[in-house]
Design brief:
CATH superfamily: Porin
Number of helices: 4
Oligomer: single chain
Shape: globular
Strand order of the largest sheet: 1-2-3-4-5-6-7-8-9-10-11-12-13-14-15-16
Helix content: 10-25%
CATH topology: Porin
Largest sheet: 16 strands, antiparallel, barrel
Number of domains: 1
Radius of gyration: 19 Å
Strand content: over 45%
Length: about 290
C-alpha cells in the first residue's frame, strides 16, 4: 500500500516539476500544492493538499478560483469576482472568509492532512461546515484593504440550506519584528448567535520565528485551545518547526516537522505528531510553492 502511494507521489512530482515554471510565471497564481502520505493508527493514506488562489485581472477587476484542503471530502473551494479601488477591495461570490485570513494554525503548515481533522478550532464556521456537513455551501462578500502596517477584512456569508449567517472579520498589524492577529466571527444559527474568536502574537528574529495563539471556536462546537509554535532556519534551505496545542477538552497535540527546500519552488516536508499518550502519526510530502 505504502509503495503504491509513493509511486503515485513520484508520478505527481514529475507533473509538478513540469507545471511549476508556468505556475510561477503567472502573476495570478499564489499558494502551495503538496502530495504526501499520512501514516497513523496503523494505516497509510495518500493525499493531495492545496491552499492556493488562481486569478486573472483586467484593470481593477479580478476573477479568482481557490482551494483549501485535500482532494476528496475535506476541502473548501472558492470562486469570486472582485474590484480593487487601490485602497479597498470588494469581493462577491464564494470568497474566503475574513476570519480565515489571519491566525491560522501552525499544524497546517507542517502536517496539513492531520490538521484538517481539527480545522474547526482555528478556521471559520464557513470552512468547518463545508468540510463536515453535506450541502453546506456558503456564499457572500468580503471587503478588505490595507492602511500602513494594518491589513483588515470583513465578510458576510449565508448558507441557505442551513439557515446560517456568518459575519466575520480579521485584522493583522505588523510592527517591526512583532505581528498581532485578531479574528472575530458571529454566527447566527439555531435561533441564536454564537461566536468564534482568536488572537495570535508573532515574533521574527533573524532565523527564529515564534508565535502564541488562543482560540475560542464556540460557534464551531469545538473546544477552546492555545497553541505555541517555533520555527528555526537551520540553514538557508532547511527549517525545523515545533508546535504544541493544548485544548480545554481532549489530549494535547505535539508536532515536529522538518522542511528541506529544493530551489525556490519545491520542498520536502517530514512531520511527526503525538496526541495523548500513544497516538503517533507520521507524514511525508513534496510541496510546490507558487
Amino acid at each position: 500500500m505504502v509503495l503504491r502511494i509513493f509511486a503515485g507521489m513520484t508520478a505527481f512530482c514529475g507533473a509538478l516539476c513540469a507545471a511549476a515554471p508556468a505556475l510561477n510565471a503567472q502573476d495570478g497564481a499564489e499558494g502551495r500544492l503538496s502530495v504526501g502520505v499520512l501514516d497513523g493508527d496503523g494505516s497509510a493514506t495518500g493525499y493531495l493538499f492545496g491552499d492556493f488562489t488562481l486569478s486573472a485581472s483586467a484593470g481593477g477587476w479580478q476573477a479568482a478560483l481557490g482551494m483549501f484542503g485535500v482532494v476528496g471530502r475535506l476541502h473548501e473551494t472558492y470562486a469570486d469576482i472582485s474590484y480593487d479601488t487601490g485602497t479597498l477591495r470588494a469581493t462577491v461570490g464564494f470568497p474566503r472568509p475574513a476570519y480565515d485570513l489571519v491566525a491560522g494554525s501552525a499544524i497546517t503548515d507542517v502536517m496539513p492532512r492531520l490538521a484538517l481533522d481539527s480545522i474547526g478550532i482555528s478556521r471559520s464556521r464557513a470552512t468547518a461546515g463545508t468540510m463536515f456537513e453535506p450541502e453546506f455551501l456558503p456564499y457572500g462578500g468580503v471587503l478588505g484593504g490595507e492602511a500602513g502596517d494594518l491589513r483588515y477584512a470583513i465578510s458576510l456569508h449565508g448558507v441557505p440550506d442551513y439557515d446560517v449567517t456568518i459575519a466575520g472579520s480579521g485584522l493583522s498589524l505588523q510592527k517591526g519584528a512583532w505581528r498581532y492577529d485578531v479574528g472575530l466571527e458571529a454566527v447566527d444559527q439555531n435561533a441564536a448567535v454564537d461566536w468564534n474568536t482568536k488572537l495570535r502574537l508573532g515574533l521574527v528574529r533573524d532565523r527564529l520565528e515564534l508565535s502564541l495563539g488562543a482560540f475560542h471556536p464556540a460557534a464551531n462546537g469545538q473546544p477552546d485551545a492555545v497553541e505555541a509554535s517555533l520555527r528555526y532556519d537551520l540553514t538557508d534551505n532547511t527549517q525545523i518547526t515545533a508546535v504544541t496545542r493544548h485544548q480545554r477538552k481532549g489530549d494535547p497535540t505535539q508536532v515536529i516537522g522538518l522542511r528541506f527546500d529544493i530551489g525556490t519552488v519545491f520542498a520536502v516536508n517530514a512531520g511527526a505528531a503525538v496526541t495523548g499518550a500513544d497516538s503517533l502519526a507520521l507524514s511525508t510530502a513534496v510541496v510546490a510553492r507558487f
